[in-house]
């Protein structure tokens, strides 16, 4: 019986991974050229990059996204994240340092309606590949904030860091307290729209070496969490964050968390 169950699970795994492939809608045809300046479509190549996302999101405001590369793949230097049907489709632009290769990087986004979620990756010398999934979710950009305004003000900018070894590298998890208001939410007390207010710049370094940097829009989730695998050199972790209201936060963590 156990052998039968195990065999069924092994057979089901690759099928499940392809349950929600990209739909390549008319929206993408427009975005590709008008927003990203790409005259031709970008090829999909799972030997270089894959994107994992749920077919149907449990919470549209915190949809988990994971970018991964197989061993031996050319390093990804930058990724543009696009959520086709979001009010601001370009969710974030990431830059990655050498210590992040091969890439294993997770974060959470808001998805406003059924949409392709895609990563356009730059591997250098003008070479680009794409990965993505179609995600069934709605209302993520206007979903009510998880905390009241007093709690937001009291905790904004607080950070937590932890790390653990994995297969000769380290898995780092960074959490930043911030409401990341999208501008489409309503205050549940006053019923007035809450102005957009979100982290738009983030840098994470070990010592002087860049691990990753982010320039973001309204689609990164409230209280963003970043989980990533990297080669540690034992240097402290430095985090620099800025938001659209001009707030700046800097924090240093010991390499071991």
TrEMBL record:
Signal sequence, start to end: 1-17
Entries under Pfam families matching the protein: SoxY, SoxZ
Gene3D superfamilies hit by this protein: Immunoglobulins, SoxY domain
Every Ig-like SoxY domain range: 49-141
Coiled coil: none
Domain of life, per lineage: Bacteria
Keyword list, A-Z: Signal
SUPFAM superfamilies the record matches: E set domains
Domain Sulphur oxidation protein SoxZ per the UniProt entry, residue ranges: 173-253
Protein's name in the database: Quinoprotein dehydrogenase-associated SoxYZ-like carrier
Species name: Paracoccus fontiphilus
Lineage, opening ranks: Bacteria, Pseudomonadati, Pseudomonadota, Alphaproteobacteria, Rhodobacterales
């Amino acid at each position: 019986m156990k052998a039968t169950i195990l065999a069924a699970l092994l057979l089901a795994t690759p099928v499940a991974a392809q349950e929600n492939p990209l739909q390549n809608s008319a929206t993408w045809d427009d975005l590709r050229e008008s927003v990203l300046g790409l005259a031709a479509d970008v090829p999909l190549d799972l030997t270089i990059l894959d994107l994992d996302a749920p077919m149907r999101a449990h919470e549209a405001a915190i949809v988990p996204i994971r970018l991964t590369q197989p061993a031996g793949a050319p390093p990804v230097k930058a990724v543009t994240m696009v959520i086709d049907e979001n009010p601001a489709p370009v969710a974030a632009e990431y830059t990655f340092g050498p210590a992040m290769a091969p890439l294993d990087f997770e974060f959470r986004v808001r998805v406003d309606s059924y949409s392709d979620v895609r990563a356009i990756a730059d591997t250098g010398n003008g070479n680009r590949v794409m990965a993505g999934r179609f995600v069934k979710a709605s209302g993520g950009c206007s979903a009510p904030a998880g905390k009241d305004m007093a709690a937001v003000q009291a905790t904004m900018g607080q950070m937590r860091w932890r790390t653990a070894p994995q297969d000769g590298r380290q898995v780092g998890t960074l959490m930043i307290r911030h409401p990341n208001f999208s501008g489409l939410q309503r205050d549940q007390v006053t019923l007035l729209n809450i102005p957009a207010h979100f982290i738009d710049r983030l840098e994470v370094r070990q010592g002087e070496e860049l691990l990753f940097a982010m320039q973001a829009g309204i689609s990164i989730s409230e209280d963003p969490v970043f989980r990533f695998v990297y080669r540690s050199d034992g240097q402290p972790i430095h985090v620099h964050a800025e938001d659209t209201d001009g707030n700046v936060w800097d924090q240093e963590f010991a390499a071991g968390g």
